[in-house]
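Please produce the structure of this protein holding iron/sulfur cluster.
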Amino acid sequence: MSKPVLIVGAGPAGLAAAGALAGAGQPVVLVDKESRLGGAPILSGYAKLVPTGEWAKDAIGGMVRRVEQDALVMVKKGARVESFEGEPGGFRAMLSDGASLEAGAAILATGFTHFDSVNKPEWGFGTFPDVVTTTQVEQMISSGRGVRCPSDGRKPQRVAILLCVGSRDRQIGREWCSKICCTVSCNIAMEIREELPECHVYIYYMDIRTYGLNETFYWKSQEEFKVKYIKARIAEVTSDGQKLIVKGEDTLVKRPITIPFDMVVHAIGMDPNVENKSIAGVFGVGLQEHGHIARGSYGASSATSRPGVFVAGAATGPETIDDSIAQGNAAAMAALAMLRRKAAA
Ligand SMILES: Cc1cc2nc3c(=O)[nH]c(=O)nc-3n(C[C@H](O)[C@H](O)[C@H](O)COP(=O)(O)OP(=O)(O)OC[C@H]3O[C@@H](n4cnc5c(N)ncnc54)[C@H](O)[C@@H]3O)c2cc1C
Ligand code: SF4
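Below is the modeled complex.
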């Protein structure tokens, strides 16, 4: 039997890779820095996922349970890889918990870091407690507490969701689109309207990018849930002492608009993992211009710049869960093919 494949990161991508390899009879060591597996959907307490409507704790939690119960997967929680030396088929890794292990290949599935909204101070996060992020609203819903203003626990009567916070913003060095936040925001808007039918929900957008079949979320949110959309450039979020005030320009009619709200939600984007520089250093792989892990193209899309080290999921740039899982499966197949070729040589 060949040496195990080392998978770093146990989010959707790493879990998919581990499941695929174990299913093919290949032993795996799965390392995650956190004490719980599941990546962002579990660690950040997402509620119902788009586009399936499944609860994250069931869908991704199910992947965690299957991997944790698989005898071919050795799970190491609360650990990082500190060194990784050798050649394809014969690597040695040292972990932060002192363990040393052999690996035939590695898959980096180290994901992303949520944009920290304090980097957009003019939009009120960190200044006003009722300016929150999509992640916080997901947690309010998934915990069963419901959507409430953090300042005093009241039910909001008016909510604004601001899209593209920390994405498509060259002023703060983030020119990428985070792909999924439009659809997530349409879904959150509908969930708020469902829980609080008296609450008015507005989505402020530059463009709506509910691409592919996700466009149904855009139409349904307007037609069935009466969510209102404003194409706007937002200047600032302030407070008059009672309400949050969103000021900007309606870019369709080219007029200034100032609207009061009880709660403002930042649809935060997906930054490169803040640890990518050190991960790239340990594994000897290249980063692309924005700091994501660089991957090969087309026929070798799971490859990194180092033979025997593969990559999958949001480690490579903003990705959806579906695409992260598909990339995890692809990286597993690429690693397995490499090991089989080595064994046959
Ligand atoms: C608010 C919000 C809501 C979203 N909702 C949806 C949705 O409904 N549907 C959808 O398709 N997508 C959604 N997404 C996107 C989704 O979060 C990603 O597609 C998905 O998490 C990517 O999976 P991943 O496994 O690549 O990375 P991650 O989920 O980021 O997992 C990476 C894992 O690697 C671990 N790790 C990181 N660095 C290290 C290290 N150095 N050593 C060891 N372990 C490490 C982390 O602890 C983590 O467990 C949402 C994103 C946001 C921001
Ligand atoms: S998916 Fe929508 S909200 Fe997210 S960055 Fe792209 S355009 Fe902005």
